[in-house]
# Entry
Amino acid sequence: MSRAGTGWSSRTLNTVGLAAVVSVAATVWLGLWVTPPDKVQGNLVRLVYLHPPVAWVALYLAFGLAALSSLLYLWKRTRSLFWDRLAAASVEVGVVFTALTLVTGTLWGRPTWGVWWTWDARLTSTALLLVLFLGYLALRRVPAEPDVRAKRCAVAALVAFVDVPIVHFSVVWWQTLHQGATVLNANLTPTIHGSMAWTLLLGFVAMTLLFTWMVALRYRIEVLADRAGDAVLEVTLAERWAEDDAPPPERADLEAHVPTGSPT
Amino acid sequence: MWRDAWLVAGKDVRIELRSRVALWQVLPVAVLSLVLYAFALGPGRAALAAAAPGLFWLAVLFSTVLAVQRSFAIESGEGTRDGLRLSGIDPAGVFLGKMAAVALELAVLQVVVWAGMTLLFGVHVATPWLAVAASALATVGLAAAGVIYGALSAGLRVRETLLPLLVLPVLAPVLLAASRAWAGALAHGSVSAGVGWLRILGPFAAAYVVIGIVLYGPLLETG
# Structure
């Protein structure tokens, strides 16, 4: 990590960003123009290059990274605000991808199942996961000391992460309308071929790169926002002291103005 | 740890027995919800009986939020949380104690709400052991997850509004599994299907008890 804690250098960030944009564009090109329509699903099959990769990023990569970072923050030996910020960035991007998973899922569900929404286990648990991590973001917005907020959010992320395996196994437990795993089925033999398989693979790479880029950018914004907050505070304090043209007040004076009694 | 848990649970239960807030505020709301369900679904007994397991656990779910809020409200007074932290009591013990107290309150509440449901909706449990097993596992799960999130939001100015947002999605699997298990335990229900849902209630309860024991220490430091 270079540049004193803002994460990757601008050069690395731009390289990853460029790779993400190029691979997403290539996936779009291959998915819409090069690959053939499916025998059964026709052109609808083209959503397969988008929906599973987005879901993989949302359900496993983003929340997995958030849980791991939260764990590393809570573990005293590796405790550092780096992990807290990484978890926050990861959840925020993960929430966007989870929302996209649901949107692309409903777009697919309407023509294939005939309904926008079905109370299928996987759909329902993904929606729950979205609300769960919206709660994490709400908790993050509660003002607190950085280390208190980090600890609180780390616990919240870990507790919420327990829901992810429920999402994963739900399709097995509560078999309903949703189809089972295609690429990673029980005997690990993919059931799709040729250009379709390659495009799907590229889709996974593209979404992973996009996620990495967005998290790195979000991390940098988090660090800069903290720094800006500190700087604004210092400038404001200096201005107030200059206004009075008096030396900074003693701590005892400050405390005398704090109202007594605790808010309940 | 167990001795500490016993002390904390005793403290919480004693406060409830003396203040009777749970008895005169949480419980009546749960019973009131039965009447509200009837207003919402109409007076036909068939519709109410069909929805009874889900409505029952919905009442328990919302009561859990109230019980957890109450459980942490009694510690919001001057320095009580600091006192608890400085007392040298094992954080895991505090967690287990508070969880036990909430679980006990929820168990009492379930008995009363179910009695009301039998009376008002005319439903009967045909397989009591299944209903009791589902209830026991669900109650531990609800109390464990509830107390973790209660501690997480305790001391925050926005705790009343934040707690339901945080805890209800987590408790949703319990609502689903417990309702289905109870549906299996009712007359004309499928017992084997009901038993299957215990496989979700059991791991849920175990997972959140373990998480609570491990993470309650860091949580207490954030109050």
In short: Chain A touches chain B through 27 residues (CB under 8 Å).
